[in-house]
Write a structure and sequence with these properties.
Elements: H1 11-19, E1 30-33, E2 39-42, E3 52-53, H2 55-58, E4 66-71, H3 77-98, E5 108-113, H4 116-126, E6 135-138, E7 143-147, H5 152-168, H6 177-188, E8 191-193, E9 196-200, H7 203-211, H8 221-225, H9 229-234, H10 241-254, H11 257-272, H12 280-287, H13 291-304, E10 309-311
Parallel strand pairs: 4-5, 5-7
Antiparallel strand pairs: 1-2, 1-3, 6-7, 8-9, 9-10
Helix pairs in contact: 3-5, 5-6, 6-10, 7-10, 10-11
Length: 312
């Protein structure tokens, strides 16, 4: 069974959400079926001892501290809890699905500004090259700084997006922009429910790609995955084409173990090699059965009929 789709909808899931505190660190979780075939989840195994130990999968304990700070803003308790649970979940998924650990030497900080002018003033001091961002991650301070927009879901998506950047490019690693932004867009749509998370499709991105007729006439994926940051940004356009294409490639790859293995290979190559990874296409050719042409055809097949969501 694919570990991403273990938890199903229905009464069983409702029981999990009710009985299990969200984001419990170091909790023990066991799964088993009784003699009547009913599925159970509990923090203790049954007396029979026949149970699957899911504790490692649901362990949200982080190897570093998570700190929140605010400037001209009162952080609501429910939003703080939501952000805390979401941040812990993204680090857990990176560790378990992509074998990527994040162990900074200092606390991971999230600073929310309630005033646009003070946020812009700080952004110009530490990240002047960014053009009108709503938030950004600074590796030197291990800090996400964001404008506290009124829409809590949008703010959570923004923080999650920047958390992905923090993990994927930790240690000053150069991750190709298509993969870096594709992963960030993928995780920004995550919704946490108790100890599980769902990542739905980005319908707007799918529409953008289909309007370009990419499900019939494939784009030049070699050019896309090898694009420099400047070229990638220039190709984005008003319809966010570069973001949509990068998101779709990541979602397609995260849909299978072979795809996740390729992402792991790309990330490990980016992290461990002495030179920046500039040629993603060459690495894909070596590590995907049939090379980039086969990946392109399979991605198009997925694009034509993309449905469902990923569950962790």
């Amino acid at each position: 069974m694919d570990w991403r789709t273990l938890v199903r909808k229905g009464p069983t899931l409702a029981a999990i959400l009710f009985l299990t505190p969200a984001g419990t660190a170091g909790a023990e979780v066991y799964k088993w079926r009784d003699d009547d075939g009913k599925l159970h989840f509990s923090d203790e195994p049954p007396s029979s001892g026949r149970a699957q130990d899911l504790s490692k999968r649901y362990n949200a304990e982080l190897p570093f501290s998570l700190e929140f700070d605010t400037v001209n803003y009162a952080l609501p308790t429910d939003l703080r809890n939501r952000l805390s649970v979401t941040v812990k979940k993204i680090f857990t998924i990176y560790r378990q699905a992509l074998n990527l650990e994040y162990n900074p030497e200092r606390a991971f900080r999230i600073v929310l500004h309630g005033d646009r002018s003070t946020f812009r003033e700080y952004q110009q001091q530490v990240a002047p090259r960014l053009e009108n961002p709503a938030g950004f991650y600074n590796s030197a301070s291990n800090q996400i700084t964001a404008l506290a927009v009124n829409n809590q879901r949008a703010l959570t998506a923004l923080i999650t997006h920047e958390c992905s950047h923090a993990v994927s490019a930790s240690g000053d690693t150069y991750v190709p922009i298509w993969l870096n932004e594709g992963l960030a867009e993928y995780f920004s749509r995550m919704r946490v429910h108790g100890l599980t998370a769902e990542i739905p499709l980005n319908r707007r991105a799918l529409q953008t790609l289909k309007r370009r007729n990419f499900h019939r006439d494939a784009p030049n994926l070699r050019e896309h995955v090898n694009a420099s940051p400047n070229a990638w940004q220039q190709a984005n356009g008003a319809d966010n084409l570069a973001y949509s294409l990068s998101w779709s490639l990541v979602y397609f790859l995260m849909d299978s173990e072979d795809g996740r293995a390729l992402i792991r290979t790309l990330l490990q190559r980016a992290r461990n090699a002495p030179l920046p990874l500039r040629d993603s296409a060459a690495l894909i050719e070596r590590n995907w059965d049939g090379g980039l042409d086969a990946l392109t055809r399979q991605w198009q097949d997925w694009l034509r009929a993309a449905e469902g969501k990923h569950r962790y």
